[in-house]
């Protein structure tokens, strides 16, 4: 049984986790990795690496389908923001050749990517969402009437990797911060996948002070909630969690369960939340595996083994669904030698 990890990039740890997962689940299989960059480290650690067209290339999905055909792939896990909506829209092509796709359907992806709609998504949940404004004028009126106070954070409705995030501590800073966010979005590759133009893709929210948490929510292929993992973020670097602590918080796990059941997504999603001392505020949901999963894996969880069990019809063991509370982790870099001759290049077919 073979599994494809696309946009594998630097996710060397994920490749190793899936390889170990085959052993834990008692299943024979291979890990196929794919990425647009020939020197992506993860390509060197799978059983077979493929260099694909870029995620925005018209032939990107065709190349992934062909990889699945060539390698008799049973399960497919996309790992990058740039491809999730595209893969979701073409899930049927993979399912038609017997490939199970661990990614949400298009409707669930849209709910997660549009931070401006979270108030509707979380209606009735134990979590709140920050007050949100869609223009500088709307935010200014809220400040002048006392509904909102500075500081405020400006971010894309459909963003990635902290691109376009700005802070404003006063009305004087609000409009320049908005213009800066728009210009960043115009230059960002993710802009090509956004529904709105950059000028209409920036939202303004009250800034929530407090402890920040990462929440991972995993559903089976039918959208049934299976498990959640929670980590307290201690430090960030380049948009990723750099240090964290494993925590068990019943309220956050209830919020995770609500998210999983409400979205009914297939596979793994990650959410960020703040606790201001009184309430939890969900500020972001990403429809993909987050890099922070590695911390939970090192604390005892094993979602790759769970995925392999689902695909093979095997038993999901309870120890794969638990992490050790209180463990603290810090991320570090490692080095991989690049043997580009070991990777096959998927050449786009010109139509």
Short description:
By secondary structure, the chain is α/β, with parallel strands linked by helices. The protein has helices at 12-25, 60-71, 81-89, 91-95, 106-113, 118-121, 136-144, 171-187, 250-263, 293-298, 303-312, and strands at residues 2-6, 30-35, 48-51, 73-78, 100-101, 132-133, 152-156, 166-168, 202-206, 211-219, 225-237, 240-246, 267-275, 280-286, 328-330, 343-345.
Reconstruct the topology from this structure:
Blueprint lengths: L1 E5 L5 H14 L4 E6 L12 E4 L8 H12 L1 E6 L2 H9 L1 H5 L4 E2 L4 H8 L4 H4 L10 E2 L2 H9 L7 E5 L9 E3 L2 H17 L14 E5 L4 E9 L5 E13 L2 E7 L3 H14 L3 E9 L4 E7 L6 H6 L4 H10 L15 E3 L12 E3 L6
Report the order of strands and helices.
EHEEHEHHEHHEHEEHEEEEHEEHHEE
Shape: globular
> From the coordinates shown, what is the CATH architecture of the largest domain?
2-Layer Sandwich
CATH superfamily of the largest domain: ATP-grasp fold, B domain
Largest sheet: 6 strands, parallel
- Major sheet strand order: 5-4-1-2-3-16
What is the CA-atom radius of gyration, in angstroms?
Answer: 20 Å
The overall number of domains is 3
- Quickly give the structural class: alpha/beta
Q: Overall pLDDT, averaged? A: 93
Percentage of residues assigned to helices: 25-40%
Strand content is: 25-35%
Q: End-to-end distance, in Å? A: 33 Å
CATH structural class of the largest domain: Alpha Beta
């Amino acid at each position: 049984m073979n599994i494809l990890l696309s946009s594998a990039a630097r996710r060397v740890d994920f490749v190793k986790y899936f390889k170990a997962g085959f052993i834990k689940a008692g299943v024979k299989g291979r890990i196929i990795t794919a990425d647009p960059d020939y020197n992506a480290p993860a390509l060197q650690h799978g059983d077979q690496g493929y260099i694909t067209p870029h995620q925005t290339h018209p032939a990107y999905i065709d190349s992934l389908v062909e990889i699945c055909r060539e390698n008799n792939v049973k399960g497919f896990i996309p790992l990058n923001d740039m491809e999730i909506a595209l893969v979701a829209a073409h899930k049927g092509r993979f399912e038609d050749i017997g490939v199970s796709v661990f990614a949400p359907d298009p409707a669930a992806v849209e709910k997660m990517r549009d931070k401006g709609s979270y108030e509707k998504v979380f209606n009735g949940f134990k979590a709140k969402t920050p007050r949100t404004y869609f223009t500088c004028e709307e935010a200014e009126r809220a400040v002048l009437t006392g509904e909102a106070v500075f500081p405020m954070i400006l971010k894309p409705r459909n963003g990635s990797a902290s691109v376009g995030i700005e802070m404003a501590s006063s009305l004087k800073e609000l409009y320049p911060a908005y213009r800066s966010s728009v210009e960043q979005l115009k230059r960002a590759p993710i802009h090509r996948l956004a529904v709105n133009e950059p000028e209409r893709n920036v939202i303004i929210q009250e800034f929530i002070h407090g402890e920040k948490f990462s929440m991972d929510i995993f559903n089976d292929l039918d959208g049934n909630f299976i498990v959640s993992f929670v980590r307290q973020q201690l430090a960030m670097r380049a948009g990723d969690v750099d240090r964290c602590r494993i925590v068990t918080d019943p309220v956050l796990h209830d919020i995770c369960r609500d998210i999983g059941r409400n979205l009914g997504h297939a596979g793994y999603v990650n959410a960020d939340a703040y606790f201001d001392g009184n309430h939890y505020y969900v500020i972001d949901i990403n429809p993909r595996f987050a890099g922070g999963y590695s911390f939970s894996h090192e604390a005892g969880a094993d979602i790759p083994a769970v995925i392999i069990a689902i695909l093979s019809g095997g038993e999901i063991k309870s120890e794969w669904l638990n992490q050790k509370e209180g463990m603290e982790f810090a991320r570090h870099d490692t080095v991989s030698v690049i043997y580009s001759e070991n990777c096959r290049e998927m050449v786009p077919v010109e139509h």
